[in-house]
Amino acid sequence: MANQLIEELGKENLLSGKTAIIASSDFTHYGPRFGYVPYGNRAEGRVKEDDLSLAHLLCDGRLDEAFAFCKEKRSTVCGYAVALLVASIAQKVQAQGWVANYYTSLDVASTADANFVAYSTILWR
């Protein structure tokens, strides 16, 4: 699918920056509401570690490892398939990735909650 999108969009357009690919997905959904509580009540640090591990696997183009990571962790990252696709495109056009930002809904909410959603911004150039 990555090769087909590169062909359709035009590799030269991607390399020149005339065409950009934007994909959006939350990262981990944690808490009883989401049916995902492998780390109990003190999860935020462990979830961040997991999410950043996944983000760095994507940035590094280690797609098989990223997929295995999601499967092993029973990941609640809702868009890991599209993240793998974009990472594959980036790898094929030799783009370098980096994690530009990471936060959770707890960072912006005014109340403590057992449930939270994590967000990571990955950019490629």
Task: Give a description of the structure.
The chain has 6 helices and 3 strands. It has a single domain (2-124), classed as 3-Layer(aba) Sandwich (Protocatechuate 4,5-dioxygenase, Chain B), CATH 3.40.830.10. It is elongated. The protein is an alpha+beta fold. Strands 1-3-2 form a 3-stranded antiparallel β-sheet.
Short description:
This protein has six helices and three strands.
Name the descriptors.
125 residues, alpha+beta, Protocatechuate 4,5-dioxygenase, Chain B, 3-stranded antiparallel beta sheet, 6 helices, 3 strands, elongated
Q: Topology, please?
A:
Elements: H1 2-9, H2 11-16, E1 29-30, H3 44-59, H4 63-73, H5 80-92, E2 97-104, H6 105-108, E3 116-124
Antiparallel strand pairs: 1-3, 2-3
Shape: elongated
Tell me the domain tally.
1
Largest sheet: 3 strands, antiparallel
How many H/I helical runs? Answer: 6
Low-confidence stretches: none
What integer is the average pLDDT?
Answer: 93
Which percent range describes the beta-strand content? 15-25%
> How would you name the CATH homologous superfamily?
LigB-like
Please report the first level of CATH classification, the CATH class: Alpha Beta
CATH architecture: 3-Layer(aba) Sandwich
Sheet with most strands: strand arrangement: 1-3-2
Order of helices and strands: HHEHHHEHE
The Rg value, from CA coordinates, equals 16 Å
Termini separation comes to 20 Å
Helical amount: 40-55%
Total number of strands: 3
Alpha-beta classification: alpha+beta
